[in-house]
Amino acid sequence: RVGQIIAIRTKVNRAFKTSMEVGIKVTVQDVLTNAERIVSVAYATYVAKPVGDGKVELKPVQLLSAEDHLEHSLAIERRRIRLGYAQVFQKLMQESNKEGDFYTCEEEDGVSTEHTRVQSTELVLPPHANHHGNTFGGQIMAWMQTVASISASRLCRSHPILKSVNMFKFWGPSFVGDRLVFNAIVNNTFHNSVEVGVRVEAYNCEEWIKGQPRHINSAFLIFNAVNDKGELLTFPRVQP
Question: What is the pTM of this model?
């Protein structure tokens, strides 16, 4: 919250051949007691910006502590799970796209997901980008959270609280001068939580005129909502 002190600690947990896993731990510090409380933990995958056509091969990290060894071992498992997720979802998408193969859900008194659809357009300006001219990933995530929060609020009629971001992946870059179009919609509700899917498309001036977007990012954001007493609100069922 405003006025609190946030500490962010990062380190490379493991270097694979051409990619690396960076662990990120965010804590909040109590000003009076100096006690720390964990706010968030995340793992980001990076590749080095190539010089020419070839990928940059990375050297192994030097492990100095027992914690380093543990995170080094867990990193390969997280990578395996992450790649497994991608294969499962690709298979599901292929099956759902088969002609005549579709799923219908009839929820009595369900709220139409069309009511939760939100679209926003942002222009990438120099403060939104790094020294290479690429849009900051965190800036894209912030814009995604905004449209997803509006989408979720149309069900709970309250201020949704972001709990997690799943399968956040960059499919391609965007640059200063690009128009980014964010499309959000509620996918499903689970009693006290809701999943909002967000898709991001980028256009340069020529692509904007021709209506030819580049799909650069997708993610699934999970929200809860609470009442004035801090109790979790129940989300209504939805009608896809």
Answer: 0.83
